[in-house]
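I hope you will forgive my troubling you with a question about protein structure. The matter concerns a single protein, recorded as an amino acid sequence and a row of backbone structure tokens. Please examine both parts with care and let me know of anything in them that strikes you as inconsistent. Here, with my thanks, is the record as I have it:
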Amino acid sequence: MNKGAKIFLLVVILVILTIVMSVFLIHKFKVFSANKKAEETIIVGDNEEIKDLEPIEQKEINYEDTIGTLTIPDILLDNAPIKEGTKLSILSDAIGHFTSTSLYVGNVGLASHNGGESGDFFRNLNKIKIGSEIYYQTNYGIRRYVVKDIKIIDETDWSLLESTEDNRITLITCVKGQDNKRLCVQAVESEKNMINNQ
């Protein structure tokens, strides 16, 4: 290889590295900005005007009602709408809430698509990390959760949606290329919330 070809190859490699680093840094900046915005604008805590949340919460919600929003800065999900139920018609334009799970106190179960033309709010859920923060906003208040567990489960395994004594959120979506598997992310309420709750 002559000197001119070596210089050309070196320039090409440098251009490719510059592009890759630029894309990486832009993405990191977006994630950083999303986290900073969430920290500055989302006020975590219970709605103190509402007492005895558990007895009243399920009675007042009807199927397909909008129940809140979900924000996950690390995957650039911002105020995604959540509706009661998990029918395909609901999942086409919102995150669905499993009706068998709590709406606010205990284990909140949510589902969404991760591919397709509409309703793919969990398209980047496979990029979430342990320690990522999740903000769940309802009329009852706003909870901040921290991701503690990420696993692949069988499509028939509903055990992670069972009631819990702690406040947690369970997110479920399909696994691309594995029809009988689901990606399950569980996050537990952050200690930062305790300032307002105790």
Q: What stands out?
A: DSSP finds four helices and nine strands in the chain. The chain has a mean pLDDT of 84.
